[in-house]
Amino acid sequence: MAIDRKKIIEEMSKVKVTGNEEGLIPAFNVFVQQLPADFWNAFSRRIVNYVPDDLVEAAEGLLFNAANECGYHTGYGIITSNEWKEVVGPMIEKMPEDVLHGAFAVFTAWGWAKSEVIEIVPDEKMVVRAYDYYESDVLRYGRTLRPCAYMIQGVSAAFMDLAYGKPYPDGLGTFHCVQTKGIEMGDDYGEFIVTRA
Amino acid sequence: MPVEKKIEFEIDHHFDPVKCRHYLNDTCTVLHCHHYMTLFHQLADDAKGFEGERFLKEAAEDTFYDVLKKYFELKGIIALEEMICLAEQYWSVVGMGLIRFISVGRYAVIAEMEYSHVDEGWLKKWGGREEPVNFITSGFVSASAALFNGRPAKTFQTKETKALVCGDETSLFKAVIN
User: Long-range contacts of range A27-31, CB-CB < 8 Å, 24 or more positions apart?
Assistant: First the structure.
């Protein structure tokens, strides 16, 4: 059986989370929370818009790093979870490429970005496309001057770290990601190219 | 015998299969982990020269003011006790921890947290620290304080004076009117 993206999205999008008696949501070996997408955009844009031009890349790098670490640890939690083993596990034939396809189906199901892997060169390169993502909501008219899907950039690199980097938890930072297209820049979709760092 | 009305934050959750987005009471939401949350807070804390703490508090205040205001209007909530209870429940439902508003006045609001996503996450990731760092909850308390008093956002400023991450038994937030 190959990866059935539609089925994974159907099954994993049903995951409903709510705080326990302590108001916390421990899951996938992390604590999760379920906040409005606007909150994350509101902080990211305030920081990037406020810093002087010569520090924009540095600020973007910090936002990338936050997503990169999040994607690495939570991604590991996801692909070792019972939910993953039940839904995605039986579909995996080719390691680790099928894991990457499955991971982006989960990424989609959880509302991070409607995204899929369109190219993998094992151990070298991955190309991801995102057709809808909350980070592009920052724009109401026209286009941004720079791509701003830092979360997808960071998580895409992290998933490649998990697939081809040193065994967890020592592989973080093996790959990096460049966003070459963005809905926020007037393109039809976002495109993310992951290569070795 | 009067029947006590049970106040419960109602959750209407749905997934849009076309855009692949989740909505909680018609607000687009996203699941993130404590790594992402604490790294955002570290970024805000490090960006002292660029008002990182203020930006994170304001992003939270603007967002949660809108969320709670919309909910109160939709459900016709006007009683202070109900607003307080629902704000506390909202913070818990979305996984941010256990918050109690212990004093709500016209000029100051005090809230306490026994459990906190930010603090638990910070402790798990890096261990303790000397200064409080729960900026998102400070913004949430400012938003709640304004709504409890029928005032616009940015009416109150909140400071965290005790923190679980510092080894205190509870975190304490004090919002004061500008």
Answer: A27/A77, A28/A74, A28/A77, A28/A78, A28/A81, A28/B33, A29/A73, A29/A76, A29/A77, A29/A80, A30/A73, A30/A74, A30/A77, A30/B33, A30/B34, A30/B35, A31/B33, A31/B34, A31/B95, A31/B117, A31/B120, A31/B121, A31/B124
